[in-house]
Design a protein that fits this description.
The chain is an alpha/beta fold and about 325 residues long. It contains 10 helices and 12 strands. Helix content is about 30%, strand content about 15%.
Length: about 325
């Protein structure tokens, strides 16, 4: 049994949200005063998380699990969850997307528990801009967290950056040089319509083409082949070995090769980041559904996956859930 949709795509990469909570307030993700958090009783318990991932790995062919949030490091018992997922057989590759502010405290324990690597969100090298974007004065913590991840062996360490017009859109070359000097793999991500304010405006989004043009003012950037199902188009920098990636989710979508499926912190299967439909595994599980039934529900959810996210279509409607409640 596999997670195959009607277009022949097979989902093997699970994006698992552990919480909708976060210790930052990035302007493109949530309001400065936060959101109404998911009630604790609706959130999957540790045992439920492990059970559903066990089903995905042993019955449905999932071989990679990315822990996301919100901010996954604010989830209680995170290290224990990682250890239990690492004990699954077959063992999935385990990674985590984080803002990095807690990695100085957690990187070593997460590596020892079985986490393989991390992606760290970092949009600017300026403390003032970091404060303006995140509404928190945590740039030094995030940068220290990146160094701690390398020291712990959570490599390759990737850095995710979103450029905002008029805020940090002049920093692409500086961010790339900073990452290359430290051995981090930088990935720029186009801002997507997943903000709770529903204020996203394609007209002011910094596009992948603009990012590449900015990088080429200081670097020679050459496209590499072999992207496969990876979301980033990867480029060699000055002939290599350093690289930079651009995830053009809006202007250059990779839907035709997508191999991802998402499970929210309250147990909802989402076949696409921009889906408006969800399949509730939590209610079924708590009502007594066995593993075979839960697997069948998951298969049915993915079978109905649409051909693409449809952002360019006239009928596109932004998902009700914001990014923090879906998981990246």
């Amino acid at each position: 049994m596999t997670l195959r949709d009607s277009f022949g795509r097979v989902a093997t990469d699970l994006r698992l949200s552990l919480t909708d909570r976060c210790n930052l307030r990035c302007t493109y993700c949530m309001p400065a005063d936060g959101l109404a958090w998911m009630p604790r009783e609706e959130q999957l318990t540790d045992d439920e998380v492990v059970r559903l991932v066990h089903i995905a790995v042993t019955r449905l062919g999932v071989d990679e699990v990315r822990l996301t949030g919100g901010e996954p490091t604010v989830r209680p018992h995170l290290v224990d969850i990682v250890a239990r997922l690492s004990d699954l057989r077959p063992r999935p590759r385990l990674s985590m997307t984080t803002n990095g502010t807690s990695l100085t405290r957690l990187a070593g324990a997460l590596r020892a528990a079985g986490l393989d690597r991390v992606n760290v969100s970092l949009d600017t090298l300026s403390a003032d801009r970091y404060l303006a974007i995140t509404n928190r004065d945590r740039l030094a913590d995030a940068q220290a967290g990146l160094a701690a991840a390398v020291a712990a062996g959570l490599t390759p360490v990737k850095v995710n950056a979103v450029l905002l017009r008029g805020v940090n859109d002049d920093e692409a070359p500086a961010l790339l040089r900073w990452c290359l000097d430290r051995g981090y793999a930088l990935r720029f991500i186009e801002q997507m319509p997943l903000d709770p304010q529903h204020s996203w405006n394609r007209g002011v989004m910094v596009t992948g083409a603009e990012i590449l043009a900015s990088l080429r003012t200081e670097f020679t950037v050459t496209a590499l082949s072999g992207r496969g199902s990876a979301p980033a188009e990867v480029f060699a920098v000055d002939g290599g070995p350093g690289t930079v990636g651009v995830i053009g989710s809006v202007t250059a979508p990779f839907c035709a090769a997508c191999d991802r499926v998402r499970l929210t912190a309250d147990g909802q299967v989402r076949s696409c980041l921009f889906a408006r439909e969800e399949t509730d595994l939590r209610v079924a599980m708590r009502a007594g559904a066995d593993d075979a039934r839960l697997a069948a529900l998951w298969v049915a959810a993915v079978r109905g996956k649409r051909a693409g996210h449809g952002i360019d279509g006239p009928a596109f409607v932004q998902p009700v859930r914001p990014m923090s409640a879906i998981g990246g």
